[in-house]
Design brief:
elongated; 3 domains; alpha+beta; 7 strands; disordered C terminus; Serine Threonine Protein Phosphatase 5, Tetratricopeptide repeat; 8 helices; Immunoglobulin-like; 4-stranded antiparallel β-sheet; 3-stranded mixed β-sheet
Amino acid sequence: MRARRMMRRCSLILALAALLPASALAQGGGRCGELSPTEMEEARALFIAGSAAVEAGRWSDAVASYERAYQLSCAPSALYNLAMAYRALGRHRDARDAFDRLMALHPDLNADLRVNAQQFRREEASRVAVLELVGIDPDARTEISFDGRAVPDEGQRPVVVETDAGSHSLVARLPEHQPFVWEGALSDGQRETVQAVFRPIPTGDDTVAVVLLVVGAVALVGGGIALAVLLQEDAQLQPLSPFVVEL
């Protein structure tokens, strides 16, 4: 069933490829400005390359081709295909936003195509995962990093981070406090609420105690690793050990 749905999606994308050489570029020209013959040929070549990537199942390549084709041409078919490629990759947030752009920037979109885009947009929006960070003072401004990218704190509470399914990490920093760290996995459409707890950075004697605890923990971990290595090496010398390789 899933394979048949994916085949229908691919067919829809490839069927739209025929729109670019004629009407699509003309529709985009007014919004993007006149294309030179070289730019027009580049946009067409990119569109064809995107369609070929779809046929080969190379969705990431299709994204790059359709994105550049749309930048050049403003062709709604290129943006539609870009949204569908994001959808196939499970990049639901990007797909939702691409469908929003399609309907906002192309009000004269074919009626049937608009209906399809609206339906796909609703589906993609329902699959966006959301992480809510609660417990942060509304007057405070935190430095937040999610999966290595900065998330601006504009004062909205709770802090809301949209993402796709998978394993993620978040680090929130508040001046004079220890960083708050969260790591976890989110599924499609999951909405997870996390309580942020910021502990003041110890000062004076407390700092020394914390340093000693950290050093002790590191030493303990290091000792555990050393013991594991010794045990493994010892196991390699025992004939019945599973680490022994017979030649």
